[in-house]
């Protein structure tokens, strides 16, 4: 085989491998998206079974305002439902009490700002020597 023929075969094989890789990669992404969608649907159906309509609306509002905290509460509710700790549907009042208990558990220390008046007293902004 001459060099041009060999180079043509290499290019053809490279193109074939690249197209194969792209199709496999696209299939993996589609499968991953599909699994993610199924998990989201399953989560939503469990939350619908566990919470009544007003509690679900409050949880959605919490997720919009504080997404990280909302996900934490959703995961807690899902685990409680899977362990059988929830009897019947939770109403809005029960969800509020659950949120209050979570707030007290995760409550961080209040931050205080100390203002050093001595340093401010040394500052000569009100000079009368103009």
TrEMBL record:
Positions of region (Disordered): 15-38, 107-130
Pfam families in the record: dsDNA_bind
Gene3D superfamilies recorded: PDCD5-like
GO molecular function: DNA binding
InterPro entries in the record: PDCD5-like, PDCD5-like_sf
Family: Belongs to the PDCD5 family.
UniProt name for this protein: Programmed cell death protein
Naturally occurring in which organism (per UniProt): Ooceraea biroi
Lineage of the organism: Eukaryota, Metazoa, Ecdysozoa, Arthropoda, Hexapoda
């Amino acid at each position: 085989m001459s060099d041009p023929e060999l180079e043509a075969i290499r290019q053809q094989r490279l193109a074939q491998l690249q197209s194969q890789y792209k199709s496999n990669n696209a299939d993996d992404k589609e499968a991953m998206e599909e699994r993610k969608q199924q998990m989201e649907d399953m989560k939503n159906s469990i939350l619908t079974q566990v919470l009544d309509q007003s509690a679900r609306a409050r949880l959605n509002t919490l997720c919009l305002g504080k997404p990280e905290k909302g996900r934490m509460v959703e995961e807690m509710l899902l685990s409680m439902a899977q362990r059988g700790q929830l009897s019947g549907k939770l109403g809005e009042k029960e969800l509020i009490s659950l949120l209050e208990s979570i707030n007290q558990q995760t409550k961080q220390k209040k931050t205080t700002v100390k203002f050093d008046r001595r340093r401010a007293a040394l500052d000569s902004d009100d000079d009368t020597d103009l």
